[in-house]
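# nightly structure sweep
# worker-07 picked up a monomer target from the shared queue
# config: single-sequence mode, recycle default, output format = structure tokens
# input follows
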Amino acid sequence: MFSSVNPRIHTRPGIPGRLPHKAGPGWHILPLLCVASLILSVLSLGVWTGRDQAAVSWEPTAAISAAGQSSFYGSGRLTAADPNGGYWLATSSGSITAYGGAPFLGSPAASGIDLNKPIVGMASTATGAGYWLVASDGGIFSFGDAGFYGSTGGQGLTVIGIIVAANEEGYGLVEASGTEAVFDAPSAPQPTASPPTATSPPTTTTSTTATTVPPESNLLTPAQTEFNGTTGGWQPVNATLSPAQGSTSGSFALDVAATATSSAGAVSALPPAGTPTAATPGDKYIGDASVEAPSAGESLGDAIAFYNSAGTQLTGVFGQAVTPTAGTWATLPEVEAIAPATTAYVIFGVLSWAPVVGQDFLVESPSLYALTTAAVAPSVVGPLSTSGNQIIQANAQPITLRGIVMPGLQVSPTMSGTGVSEQAVIEAKEWGANFVRVPLSEEYWLSSNCDYSSTYEATVDQVVNWITSLGMVALLDLHTNSLSSCDSGTPSQHNMADEAQSPTFWSQVAARYGNPTSPEYSPLVAFDLYNEPHDISQSIWLNGGETTDTVTGVTYDAAGMQQLYDAVRAAGSTNLTFISGLNWANTPPTTLVTGSNIVYAVHYYTCPGNDLSSCTNPDPYDPTQGLSQWTALGTTEPVVVTEFGWPSQDSGTYDSNVIAYATEQGWGWSAFAWEDVQYPTEWDVNLAYLPDGTAEPSPSGMPVLLALSQET
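# output follows
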């Protein structure tokens, strides 16, 4: 299940062994974690009828004599004859040697499986393309086209052999007492869909019939979730598995004990082993589980991985790791992932990061389900207006804007080298966004500025068209400006918009995208007048005035929000206009801008620096210490949290809390940032694109995807 192709491993503070976000497709952990070679077979359907399997014998010596038409090919101990000629010899340790025309289909020893009890029985399928091994405790190992129907492993029985049904759709385990434990193939109806046949099957071929479930039900089977005396077919990752007592009397859990210090865990059945869970390309899948860590300090997290029909892993997505209180059951944060284009199967896993060998944890009630409600936001119906504290669509329905910030064009006149692209817009829509905030610079737009780019206007046109053609709102944000017509260096933001150029910028932008007579007009474009005003008074914020810039030390005349708003309306536009508060947009204004169709914008970061270790906030996960200032204004005016984020991809706690608070207040929001290239990538809510263009979330972006896909 874990790919070791092109691994790019590093260790992040607090969660050793996590993946770099640019690692590409696959769960690139350490090669030692590879369990894709576990050779267990999958369930097929049928009924028990009984079949003599006389070809199985336990030889007391290491010699086999040829008899009748048999040929002698070699020697060993446990034997099963291949109907096509040849035979297999198995040892009690789980090694298998194939002789004559008998194919080698795998063995416990070749798979690196440590047996709890010795192998005591073997049987082949009628086709000769599969065989079963049974251990003395009743554990079953099936290979090739031999189906797995159940076992008595872990139940304290002593098994001496196996008898296979005539139709090979069940088997019986013979106990030393002479009784027989019968395992029939399930009597459930045939699945309504099966995954495509693998074009390049692995050396060990298996049946890969996938199960399908009703919408919004748990895709994991009862055996995979209940652990009633069994491990439910889960497979170990640097661990040993056993059933255990659950959180309540009569409940059961899966005990996962680490055998390595890099990471350890367990995963639900995956191809070519176990019964794979069918998945549909493009669908979103959500998983979670309850866990208990008997010892303190154990970091636990969940994950989802997708496979194609050949059993090749396409990608793996990790949820946020948490450290539960020792001895206390906790629910892991949900993990969500989007199935890539060639997906056939999905699995769910729970992992411990950097455990001590022998350290264990318990898993209970795992769930994995596909979203069946609308996971993509419906198109916004413009033009938009405001009424009281709501944003209203042209169909008279209120709408809450939720989306992402897509930076790049505020520091570059072209999309090259930025996170802005058509694929980025498509993926934002796929996540469930209904608006995208696009930071811009007046320096590249205005022909009077020496940094003017003749292609910038067309670039913005293209981005606006990408966003609005998908039915999303494009929020154009004046993010950087210059204090003269010829500033040098990369554009930057200042205390406030400048009177010399910013009103002209908005006159031109509003006339182009907000005036109905313009060919580029769109009712789904909105305007964000200036990003994060700071170190100015309420009076200057509203009406403009002289201020000394904190970045350059230059004293200049600032344009106020009222002046910028008036420039938009004078251009013939009635489109929504966003106005940020004071103190880096943290604080609401005491005097509001006069006008209509106004939305007030708040930004709040408890840890605004790029380095998380420099954060000094004593309660960094609590956004209410800033956002609560806006609740009074939010009762009369529309409010949107247009920027928030966390400077580490390993944690989504802060983003989750912001989204929850905004939702409680009825506010919209846009998370920072979608593949930002100006700042360290720790701010990114998305991982690097997969080859088919799919964008999966980072742990910090997980609550963003969860909210967008479930709140559309």
